[in-house]
């Protein structure tokens, strides 16, 4: 896997011009033609500076409202023979999109915000010096699609994943645990879910990775897309892929010139989940030893998993590491900006979730041992509640697409299939879309339908009851 420098993509190291968008009756055509420079305004010292456009509001509603005032980008520059694709988001869908493009002979650059590694919602935390290990996002996945099954078989052979044979079931308030009578194979990352993401690209030769990087702006200019991070150039590309969702994706789309894609993103509804990582000196008083349980009848908790059993086996005598997930309703009631969680909120959520664990296990409130390590994290835009039921979205006029788990379902399998589909769609477009680009449009008008499952995701083939209406069914796995 090759690493890319941040600014080497720009021709002559020039920044793209920043033109204010004005209403027009016909689409703006971006082609190989010069543009006028932005208006200048005098400084106090007599020099000039570029007039900056006013910033948009930070609310998702404000961002989406303004996105419909923009004109549609319509690239007319000839399709390049060796295009370069930017993929914004290094979760499962973004990575599989990159690999799909590579198999077709195309280059791509993946931009990801991850400080510790790739993966998005395939998150794993290693806490030293105690060597505590937590999967604190996607917990496991199942396989039903043959194409995804073939991919997973390759991961098994390479040691990237393994089957999780721990006991999985449901636990109702009071400690009533029921093991699922039958279940398809359940897979987890061999060393955690995040290392799986890094391993996927280990043999890639046409994929560059730039992280941590938070792409903040997309600008169409002179037949290409120019990306920047808070004013810092991040390259020029022939097509772009948005491989994440939520407020940040909406902000990118609000001024990019892609109202058709922005309209579809507007239709997406998202919920949230709190994750609590907790390590205990002694085993928890579970009714039977189990690896994971969907929690029923408890307001503050929807899932609990024994990471120590998952990674080290049931015979391990060391610290006992657990991941607990809140219900979607509890997360909604306690939602705050995930980038700046107040200490008082973090403590309140931790206390409420630990109390929920006691209720689920049938233990008196305050009786369970205190964890010697604990940390909460809010996944603020992790859980899609509806879906268009299509593999991907692609706008051939703007040379831009979207992939992600929410487009097909709500699982790691859905994320992988979506990324593969968009990679193939883009490859087909660059190979055959010169004369009739409109034939390669997909998903731009598709209606969304409610999505059902568990609070932490869909697991095709797993025999269990979905969440109730009081605790809606949402997805955490990528």
From TrEMBL:
<protein>
    <recommendedName>
        <fullName>FAD/NAD(P)-binding oxidoreductase family protein</fullName>
    </recommendedName>
</protein>
<dbReference type="GO" id="GO:0009507">
    <property type="term" value="C:chloroplast"/>
</dbReference>
<feature type="region of interest" description="Disordered">
    <location>
        <begin position="455"/>
        <end position="478"/>
    </location>
</feature>
<dbReference type="Pfam" id="PF13450">
    <property type="entry name" value="NAD_binding_8"/>
</dbReference>
<dbReference type="InterPro" id="IPR036188">
    <property type="entry name" value="FAD/NAD-bd_sf"/>
</dbReference>
<feature type="region of interest" description="Disordered">
    <location>
        <begin position="21"/>
        <end position="61"/>
    </location>
</feature>
